[in-house]
Amino acid sequence: MSSIESAGLSAGRVPATLAPIEIARRFSHRRIALVSAALLVLIVVLAFSSDLWLTRDYADQDPLVRNQPPLGDAGLLGTDQLGRDLLARLMFGIRLSVAAAAFGVLVQLAVGVPLGLLAGYRGGWIDSVAMRSVDVMLAVPGLLIALLIGMNIKEQVASGSGAVADVLRSIDRLTAGLTPVFVVLVVFFWVSMARIVRGETRVVMARDFVRAARGLGAGPFRIVVHHVLRNCIAPITVSVALLIPVTMLTEAAMSLVGVGVDPPRPSLGVMIYEGAQQINSFPYQTLVPSITFAAVVLLVGFVGDGLRAALDPTTEQGR
Amino acid sequence: MSANGTIARRVGRTGVVLLVVYAITFVCVRLTPGNPFAARAPRALSPDQQARLERQFGLDDPWPVQFVRYLFRALSGDFGVSYAHQGEDVVDVIVARAWPTMSLVGAALLVGLVVGVPLGVAAALRNDSWFDHLLSGVSTLGVAIPVFVATPVLVIVLSVYAGWLPAQGWDGLISTTAIIPIVVLALEPIAVTARFTRASMIEVLRSDHHRTARARGLARRTVVFRFALRNGLVPVTTITGLQVAGLLGSVVLVESAYNVPGLGKEFLAAITARDYPVVMAATLIFAAVIVVANLLVDVAYARLDPRIRSA
């Protein structure tokens, strides 16, 4: 990857010299990003409030209204083969996507950023170990390892004995069955953030104002928080936005394969998979979650593109 | 450092990556609770039978012994016996399913290059035109839509409604069954290749030597295709190498969604059936393909770009 960065093509490398108010103004000029952000907020609010405005629960089965098409008598989006309301299931699935995305962001900020700062600031063997680990993590078959870890955690929770399994079981009760997904996010999602922040830190550390600050007697904490971190905000924001779709994808793929959330809880991945079993007779059952998932991911992508342009002072007006 | 030194170091790193993948896989599989034999036995196993089976498969040794033994056996090509395919050698299970997977991944990479590069060049030549903007929007779409969404959507449109293509299955690479999987897998390579080709070409077209060549009266077509493209495609090699890792993940999902009897579908089946020997072997083979692809890209890169050799 280093060769890409030297070619100046890396997505995250953006010099940060814009004031927050200026960034907000530039973002607001990007109509697509703004509309996408508004739609996302709307979708998230609808999903998390669905218990208030929906009459049926995602797990309620009704043998009288099985496989009803959308826009019919049985709800806006119809029902699945067990007569469960697809709209209720869709809303719950979006909640799981949002949960995975939020946790992925947390991992990036709470693990990736500090690690990158430490490696970039201290250098030496910490830097070497961290960056070799990053190289290795970027070269492993991610999805396969994720599924393997998911399989392991799933079995630990289901039938494991010992302290580790007990801890995992109590986490699983808290996370409503998303533990395998969360473990995978912890394992993988610090990597690119650590690399980006480490690179930025090295760049900032070599700048004159850092040397000046040090000459004036600023301690490491002040330099890292006041100078380095502040200059890393743009690449951190862009990286977070770009990785949110990947976290949602991880959750959906793991659940689809059966090492994510447990039935009857509907992940969008589970809905796509279950619907695909009846693709010839009732294509809408897989089409509805598929289009929803693609739309949400695309909206997040548009917001990310908008943020990247707004944060990059080399583009005019953030266009 | 010399070119050979760089390549030797990269070969060393490849070994480290494979060892790490092996360690993660080993830990995941060995520390998974539950008993693979008890789950398959028609009736409850007596403690005596259980102990005999564990001895037979070497599961009663301390795990460091198992770790080293499996490693050395794997290096000599012995991956053990599958639990799910009764008594079948894991190598046979894998070899029988490798062809559909590798041909799908190879075809998707090829389509990605053949479609992506011209699109990227065209967008770079018409920088900031409507075509450029359209391509950028479409490529966001290509990256954003995951394969497990694209597969059912294409099946619904092209198979269920139009009836042009089969809805699932595999009759070999040269058949109508291969079209939907290849198209689905190629979406991201096309989008990423086009994006990188465009960015790289724009940079080359702005460079001084390009301007000089134009100023000396060489035709635009000559300059673009004889000089700019050769420079502009160098970063694209790196991207193509990175695509392999993504494709080997996607192919697992596409194979299971389109019912292609390949390695990916077998891997998922093995995960579900807790067929540990197959899970371990499949993961290692996928990892090996990825690191070898990255190594080849590094070597190609060093040959294409003289600056890397001295770096």
UniProtKB/TrEMBL annotation, chain A:
PROSITE patterns: ABC_TM1
Regions that span the bilayer: 32-54, 96-121, 133-153, 173-197, 232-261, 281-303
Compartments it resides in: Cell membrane
GO cellular component, one term: plasma membrane
Topological type in the membrane: Multi-pass membrane protein
Domain ABC transmembrane type-1: 94-304
Gene Ontology biological-process entries: transmembrane transport
Keywords tagged on the record: Cell membrane, Membrane, Transmembrane, Transmembrane helix, Transport
Protein name: Unannotated protein
UniProtKB/TrEMBL annotation, chain B:
Intracellular or extracellular location(s): Cell membrane
CDD domains (alphabetical): TM_PBP2
Source species taxonomy: unclassified sequences, metagenomes, ecological metagenomes
Keywords for this protein: Cell membrane, Membrane, Transmembrane, Transmembrane helix, Transport
InterPro entries membership: BPD_transp_1_N, MetI-like, MetI-like_sf
Gene3D superfamilies xref list: MetI-like (1.10.3720.10)
UniProt membrane topology term: Multi-pass membrane protein
Matching SUPFAM superfamilies: MetI-like
Protein name as catalogued: Unannotated protein
Organism: freshwater metagenome
Entries under Pfam families matching the protein: BPD_transp_1 (PF00528), BPD_transp_1_N (PF19300)
Matching PROSITE patterns: ABC_TM1 (PS50928)
Transmembrane segments: 12-32, 104-125, 137-161, 173-192, 233-258, 278-301
